[in-house]
Structures are given as C-alpha cells and as structure tokens.
Write a structure and sequence with these properties.
Layout: H1 7-10, H2 23-34, E1 41-45, H3 52-64, H4 78-85, E2 91-95, H5 102-111, E3 122-127, H6 134-145, E4 151-157, H7 165-168, E5 172-175, H8 181-195, E6 198-199, H9 201-210, H10 215-229, E7 232-233, H11 235-242, H12 247-259, H13 262-274, H14 279-299, H15 304-307, H16 311-321, H17 326-344, H18 349-366, H19 369-377, H20 382-386, H21 389-398, H22 402-412, H23 416-449
The structure holds zinc ion.
Length: 450
C-alpha cells in the first residue's frame, strides 16, 4: 500500500500568492525577485509553522527560475523543479542545530566563495540558525562584511534574540506573525475543498482555534482528525480526536459557578480527566470563554463580531453573561489565566485543575463581589475627612489609614451609620486595590489581544 503524503506536504505553497498570511513579507520578497535585486542576507524570525522555510524556498525558486527575473517562480522549469525536489546544487538547506562545529563553519565559509554553478544565485537557507556556534557566526560575519556577488543567505530562526547583533545588522530582518484564526480557517477550507471533503464550519473553526496561529499545526491536526473521521469532517469527531471539551462541559461549569456548587466542580474535574481531554487546551478554552463572557457583559453586542464565535456559542454566551456580574466574570477570568501555567507545569496537574475549578466556584465567597461593586461606586469622602485638624491628629497619632481615620471621625460626631460605612470600606480596601490592579491588567490584555 502506498503511503500517503501529509496534507502539509501535499499543499505546501509553491508561490508567494499561495502562502497564507505574511502579506508584507511576501510583497517585499516578490518585488526583490521581480527586480532581480535581492539583499545579501535575510533574517526570518517567528514561531514555528508560520511559513519561514516555505517562503525561503519560494524565494530561492523565484531567484533561480529559468524565466527570471519574475515576481513568482514558474515551478515548471528544470531550475524550479530542482529546488522543489531539494536537489538544486546552488540551493543549500542547512540545519543550524546539527551543523554548528568549527569544521562546519569553515566548510560553510569555503563554499560561499564559489559562484553559482547551474542557477543564477547561490542560496543558503540556514534553519534554526540561532543554534550556530560562535565560530560559525564569526565565519559568516567575515563573509557578510564583504558579501560575494550572487550569494544570498536566509537565516530562519524561532529565537532572533539569540542572534549576534553584528549579524542582525547586516540582514534584512522580517518578523513572521502568527496567523489569525480567520486566515487559518480560510486555508483549511481551501484544502478541504481541494480534497473534495464535506465539512462542518464548526469543525474547521475548532481546528483553526486549536492550531494557535501555526499553519503547520493546523494541517497536522486536520490530518489527525481525517485519519479517524473518514470522508467528512464533523465537530463531534474533531473534539473527540483532539481531546477537546464540548460546550456541555462549560455549561456545567458555569452553572456550578452560579450555584457555588463545589461537588459539581470536583465532578467536572473528574470527568475532564477521565475523558482524557487535553488539559492545556481546556484551560485555554476556559480562559477564552470567560474573556468573551466578560467582554460581552461589559461591551454588549458591539464586541460580538471581534469574538469570532459560532452562532451557537454566541447564543450561549449572550445568555450566560447576563447571569453573572462583571466583577465576578473578571475575577474568574483572571483566576483561570493565572492558574494556566501552574497547572501545565504542576507535578500533579489533576489536583491543580481541581483546585482551580473549586476556586472558580468559590469565588464569590473568597471575594465579597457584590459589596465590592457597590463600594467601588460610593462617593469618596474619606480623603476630605482625613484632611481636617482632628483627622490629621488621629492619623499622626496612630499612623492610621485614611479610612480608619474617617470612621473614627464619624464616630466622634455621633454618626454611627457613617462610621460603620467607613470601617466597612476600610475592610474592603485591599479588595478594591486588587480589583483595580486586575482591571489594569485586563485593559492591557485586551490591548495585546487586539
Ligand atoms: Zn521556473
């Protein structure tokens, strides 16, 4: 039986136009090949699976294409075909991780001196280039100081910060970005269309979300689901294969949060672990849902388009957000975000997950949310009271806080109701401060996610 190519290999883009995302980078490189004026060195940085090597190969094809100068490789001439097969004598792909010895550096330096043999340019694509040794970088630096004609270096790296600044300053540096869920969705739909497979929109949405910005991951996840799912792609099979929690688990959890039902939280945790769900992704989904709930609660319908939800999800969240206070959702979101890293790296992730779910359910008891909200809205008169002579005296005498001083002042004047109000506010001052810090962080997160 013939072994099937992976989808990623079968649908690897061969032209700049076929690449998903990275619009600016594609435009600049395509122009460089069309005008036949490549830079001597490029640095492609960005996380894995966002198209660095793919674009480097397309660039190499276009520069060496028999019809050059061209904005896109023809992918038909012998030059292009040899690059695609990885057999072009002038296009070398070097793995920085396994070629980082002194000898490798010397060999690299010697080979870069030769003119191209068959093609128009000699191109070195160095993957994981940050792994190169100091000797290799020194050898490269000498070459880059006086770049030989018709030689192009392309360094690809996931860790640009590990690159010597002397090398970076001699490269055109392109930062490859994560792909948006929409861009991944479109790409997956195109591939499914070409494969002639029926699919549910929700299934594609799940894979796009799960791939977290990586095209390569989205393709291997699709491969994985299709291996079991057969000739069509459904949301149910996708969740099953990828170990993703269904909507009903979140329904159950939000319900438990409303009822402050600890037994249910423990049961949900047991279920998540028994179903073998991917804990890391479950936490990401949970934090994402709490974020959507909070934004919907505060921003209303106007934020809906930016949340990219399916119709079912939108209906559910719209319904659910009304049942919680904004402060409650905010504290829950923060708690879930803070716990994520701890749980993934915990020696006992199950126990840590259970604690998080219990914390979420117990939140209203851990933080007096209702009172917090009304206190945050109360007019602030404490500061004025503390400014009076008696206030200053009290403050200085016992180094009392402004709130306590105000309470004592009110008590002095016989206004017990006000005194009580001020001491209550004092009691909640740390909570208010905490909430303020959380709101600040929230604003920051929203800004980053935009
Ligand atoms: Zn060609």
């Amino acid at each position: 039986m013939k072994q099937q190519d992976s989808l990623a290999a079968r649908y690897r883009p061969r032209t700049f136009a076929e690449v998903a995302g990275q619009d600016m980078i594609r435009a600049v490189l395509s122009r460089a090949t069309a005008e036949d004026c490549p830079a001597p060195a490029y640095l492609f940085s960005g996380t894995r699976g966002v198209g660095k090597t793919t674009i480097a190969r397309i660039f190499a094809s276009a520069l060496n294409c028999a019809r050059a100068p061209v904005p896109e490789p023809c992918n038909e001439c012998p030059q292009c075909l040899r690059v695609i097969q990885g057999a072009h004598v002038d296009v070398a792909e070097i793995d920085g991780a396994s070629n980082n010895s002194v000898e490798d550096a010397r060999a690299l330096r010697e080979t870069t001196g030769y003119a191209p043999m068959e093609g128009r340019y000699r191109i070195f694509i160095i993957d994981e280039a940050h792994m190169l040794s100091r000797h290799a970088f020194n050898a490269l630096l000498k070459t880059l100081e006086e770049p030989p004609p018709r030689v192009v270096f392309i360094f690809a790296t996931t860790e640009a910060h590990k690159f010597p600044i002397t090398i970076v300053s001699r490269c055109q540096h392109f930062v490859f970005r994560h792909l948006s869920e929409d861009a991944l969705h479109t790409r997956l739909a195109v591939v499914l269309g070409k494969e002639g497979l029926a699919f549910e929109e929700d299934a594609v949405r799940l894979i796009a979300r799960r791939a977290a910005g990586s095209v390569r991951d989205s393709m291997s996840l699709l491969d994985q689901v299709l291996a079991l799912g057969g000739s069509s792609l459904t949301a149910a099979v996708t969740r099953d294969v990828l170990g993703m929690a269904g909507q009903e688990v979140f329904d159950w959890l939000f319900d438990a949060m409303l009822r402050q039902d600890c037994a249910a939280a423990a049961e949900i945790c047991r279920q998540v672990l028994a179903d073998g769900l991917d804990t890391g992704f479950f936490l990401r989904e949970l934090a994402g849902r709490l974020r959507s709930l909070f934004l919907l609660r505060e921003g209303g319908e106007t934020v809906l388009p930016s949340l990219r939800l399916s119709a079912d999800e939108a209906a559910f969240l719209r319904d659910t957000c009304r049942r919680f206070s904004a402060a409650h959702l905010h504290a829950a979101w923060q708690t879930a975000l803070d716990a994520r890293r701890g749980i993934v790296y915990s020696p006992d992730p199950g126990a840590s997950l259970e604690l998080l779910l219990l914390n979420l359910v117990m939140l209203p008891r851990l933080l007096p949310l209702n009172r917090l909200e009304s206190d945050a809205c109360a007019p602030d008169t404490a500061v004025d009271s503390a400014a009076s002579p008696r206030g200053r005296q009290l403050s200085q005498a016992g180094a009392l806080s402004e709130g306590t001083t105000a309470a004592l002042l009110a008590k002095d004047s016989g206004d017990t109701a006000r005194a009580e109000e001020f001491s209550r506010r004092e009691e909640f001052a740390p909570c208010i401060e905490l909430l303020g810090a959380r709101l600040e962080r929230c604003t920051e997160l929203i800004r980053i996610s935009e």
